[in-house]
From TrEMBL:
Keyword Transmembrane helix in annotation: yes
Membrane-crossing segments per the record: 53-76, 186-210
Highest rank taxon of the organism: Bacteria
Protein name, UniProt field: DUF3592 domain-containing protein
Organism: Burkholderia ambifaria (strain MC40-6)
Keyword Membrane appears in the UniProt entry: yes
Keyword set, alphabetical order: Membrane, Transmembrane, Transmembrane helix
């Protein structure tokens, strides 16, 4: 009885209490924020990479289209240039494979001018050359290859060049000038320039900071609209 009020020296162990629900919610929220923040740089880099690809392809198309347009203007202007003889220093023929057809492609180096000092290197598809399917192109013999090379290279040598009187270093094949190749060049040039500009505009608009700016502007417009509706 006397020992009831005395401390026995033993400590009663405390029962651990489970953390309250708000602590679990805060911990889960922190984990989600950490995960989302780790994904943000990756998404940002991918969006920048996407825009860079669009800008690169668009810039390439614009340059190619500009070159084709300039070449078209030169071909039109070359109608007034003198027709001069030229010799073919080197000429070769090859097959160019498209999506569904195969065509001949010629490449030649012309020498012209006083003492044959000027040089003009060009590639073209010979006029009237046959077009093959992929299966038929595999059956072309070496003899046919040699015969076509001799035919088209001799025709190019006999046809000569159109050379600028003001700038003798600028020349074009006579067949390309009189054959209306400028129409094909201007068509491709305009198409490539327009397509390239569209891709460049898309690449710029998809940059992360541009997208964020447009998104914020849309949110502000939405808030103003909601404010007018609620005020009325």
């Amino acid at each position: 009885m006397a020992n009831r009020g005395q401390d026995t020296g033993r400590r009663v162990p405390r029962i651990a209490q489970a953390p309250s629900a708000p602590l679990y919610q805060r911990a889960g929220r922190r984990r989600r924020q950490t995960t989302e923040s780790s994904h943000i740089p990756v998404k940002y880099a991918l969006r920048c990479f996407r825009s860079a690809i669009l800008l690169f392809v668009g810039g390439f198309l614009v340059l190619a289209g500009a070159a084709a347009t300039i070449n078209s203007a030169i071909l039109v202007r070359a109608h007034a240039w003198p027709h001069v003889p030229a010799i073919v220093e080197r000429c070769e023929l090859s097959l160019r494979y498209g999506k569904s057809s195969v065509t001949w492609e010629a490449r030649a180096v012309f020498r012209y001018g006083a003492g044959q000092t000027q040089q003009y290197d060009t590639t073209w598809q010979p006029a009237g050359s046959p077009v093959y399917s992929r299966s038929a192109a595999s059956n072309i013999s070496r003899e046919q290859f040699v015969a076509f090379t001799k035919t088209y290279c001799s025709a190019a040598a006999n046809d000569g060049l159109r050379v600028s009187s003001m700038f003798p270093g600028i020349a074009r094949r006579n067949d390309a000038v009189v054959g209306g190749a400028w129409v094909r060049e201007i068509g491709f040039g305009l198409f490539a320039v327009v397509g390239g500009l569209v891709l460049c505009a898309a690449g710029i608009s998809l940059l992360p900071w541009i997208e964020e700016r447009k998104r914020n502007a849309a949110k502000r417009r939405t808030r103003r609209t909601c404010g007018r509706v609620s005020g009325s």
